[in-house]
Amino acid sequence: MTCFLGLDLGTTNVKALAFSPDSGRVVAQASAAVDTLYPQPGWCEQDVLAIWAACREVLGTVMSELAPTGLTPRALGLGSAMHSLLGIDEAGQPLTHAIIWSDNRSEAQVTELRAGAPALPRALYERTGIPVHPMTPFSKLLWMRSHQPELLRTARWLSIKEFIWYQLTGRYEIDYSMATATGLFDSDMLRWSGTALDATGLRREQLSEPVPTTHRLAFAPRPETEAIGLPLALPLVIGASDGCLANLGAGAIEPGITTLTIGTSGAIRQTSRQPLRDPQARLFSYILDTDEAAPYFIVGGPTNNGANVLEWVGEKLSQLEAEAVLAEAESVPAGSEGLLFLPYLQGERAPIWDAHARGAYLSVAWSHTRAHFARAALEGVLLNLRHINQLLAPHTGPTRIIHANGGFARSDFWVQMLADVFGVPVRLNDSNESGSIGAILLAMKATGFVRSLAEATRYVGYGRTFEPDPDRHATYQEAYRRFSAALDAQTHAL
């Protein structure tokens, strides 16, 4: 009997899973924490060598757990958080830490570009499908060009996932999904954009070779990978980005199914058969699979402000653990008795794409307690995601059901709030590791175990479905109207 392995390189954890198609269940799993470094205000970095050590640890643990089961791995699929950037030397050794998605050091360069050459961001969006924002490697390279020009010219530039792929295979390759997230990739022509490279001063040979998300190589152990225990010649499938794989792993590839993820940050996405270009460049479009017979794109918008808002309330307002914050918030009625929160604590991507945006409580009354502030913060995260979904709906159609995943899905209270805010059912998966499951499903297709991604999603298992409460939804309809008006006012004031 066989199983499939998935490796997910997240912002806070590296995770490995083994999934048995016969039982339809996860049969082994392991996780290792990843530290984020904050060397200066607005900077967010990670040590890629520590991440590689975590990968070896979790894969080794999963292989050890599989040993007594008799299950044989058939393939390993990879997934990763997007938008990271690090420089390496000719020997493949890191010259920098990985600058991750939440790093805002390139704010000045992005602001200058938008003011001095406003046509260029629009032209780049049309070719890449990604708004120009400090999150992207494109913008990070603009910062490098201003502050470390010699390093920019001499280093090879990778994402964290490319570095791990190189450690496993010895090849500098990047899948189309991760490439579209760089802001440097022409997603129509499937090659690096000359316009983007000219703007950064980078040469094509400093970047990895773009390949399909189903691209695979046979595992050939080296001294530093032998201890992991992966079988000789095991197919390694390069996979895709975490957002794309979360949709696939949640079984959300049909029209009308929206995937909503809240981890540290958040995103709302739908699967489309065509790429998307928003007239105001507010939404992303990533490649999931370029199969000519059945191409898939993941379209939607990301928010900087997800469960980090819950963390902020606990640390800064109430000095309580997350569970206690959620319990207090649950004691307050839906709508927080008029209190509103704009959740822009760390700038914002969608819907406003402004790294300078800041959060605010509105309509504060004497009667509002700490619990009101907690609930309003949680509601603000969901109202903001609903606003992103409103931008998406004209392109993809209305949402009829949400498939929810991420750390927030462990809270029945917060998931029920999501159903009430959006007014549609919310379905959970039986595993909350949709990114890893998505990597496994893509590996199933890449190795011929299934013929299509639609067939692969038959292996997705589902848990509880939360139905919206009509009275609470009516309350949130009014709250959303007020939220949208406040957001419009703040956007015009920025």
Structure overview:
By secondary structure, this protein is α+β, with helices and mostly antiparallel strands. Helix content is 38%, strand content 22%. It has 16 helices and 23 strands. Strands 17-18-16-15-21-22-23 form a 7-stranded mixed sheet, sandwiched between helices. Strands 3-2-1-5-14-13 form a 6-stranded mixed sheet, sandwiched between helices. The radius of gyration is 22 Å and the shape is globular. The termini are far apart. The model has no long low-confidence stretch (mean pLDDT 96).
Secondary-structure blueprint:
Blueprint: E1 2-9, E2 13-20, E3 25-33, E4 45-46, H1 48-66, E5 72-80, E6 86-88, E7 98-99, H2 107-116, H3 119-128, H4 137-147, H5 149-154, E8 156-158, H6 160-169, E9 173-175, H7 176-180, E10 185-186, E11 191-192, H8 194-200, E12 209-211, E13 216-218, E14 235-241, H9 242-249, E15 257-262, E16 266-272, E17 284-289, E18 296-303, H10 307-318, H11 322-330, E19 340-342, E20 360-362, H12 370-396, E21 401-405, H13 412-422, E22 426-429, H14 434-446, H15 453-456, E23 462-466, H16 470-493
Parallel strand pairs: 1-5, 5-14, 9-12, 15-21, 21-22
Antiparallel strand pairs: 1-2, 2-3, 4-7, 6-8, 10-11, 13-14, 15-16, 16-18, 17-18, 19-20, 22-23
